[in-house]
Specification:
GO terms for molecular function: catalytic activity. It is a single chain. By secondary structure, the protein is α+β, with helices and mostly antiparallel strands. It has one domain: 2-Layer Sandwich (HIT family, subunit A), CATH 3.30.428. Helix content is 26%, strand content 20%. 17% of the residues are buried.
């Protein structure tokens, strides 16, 4: 537990200093109910290492922590037969609405007619094939 931050809320949850409703835990990750419960079963999965967000992950971190996503998603889906889908999301940085600065994955169960809207927008009319290619090439150059 020496890889945890003393002031981070999620690190405190991992250490047991703040109570949580744990649904899964092992040496690598802890998954617990989000108190906001956007929909019943809304769960957060956090690595048991203080990483601010996905931008801090090494390939080894990703291999170690993200491999649990399918198992957690499936366990949540199985808990309620009315679940018809799931949003699996992460907010990386304040501009992406990250509130707790410890990497976490949201599992938000979806139900037919639940009325929940995940806001996106379609800007396709603002891009030409050349614009798309330029953006793709610039990103590709970063690998």
């Amino acid at each position: 537990m020496d890889e945890l931050d003393k002031d981070c809320l999620f690190c405190k949850i991992i250490r047991g200093e703040v109570p949580s409703y744990t649904v899964f835990e092992n040496d690598d990750v802890k998954a617990f109910l989000d108190l906001s419960q956007v929909n019943p079963g809304h769960t957060l999965m956090v690595p048991k290492k203080h990483l601010t967000n996905l931008f801090d992950y090494t390939a080894e971190d990703a291999e170690k922590y993200l491999k649990y996503i399918p198992a957690i998603a499936n366990a949540i889906k199985k808990f309620d037969p009315k679940i018809t889908g799931m949003n699996v999301t992460t907010n990386n940085g304040e501009s992406a609405s990250q509130v707790v600065m410890h990497s976490h994955i949201h599992f938000i169960p979806r139900f037919e007619g639940d009325g929940l809207k995940i806001a996106t927008r379609n800007n396709e009319d603002k891009y030409t094939p050349d614009d798309y290619q330029k953006i793709a090439d610039q990103i590709k150059a970063q690998f």
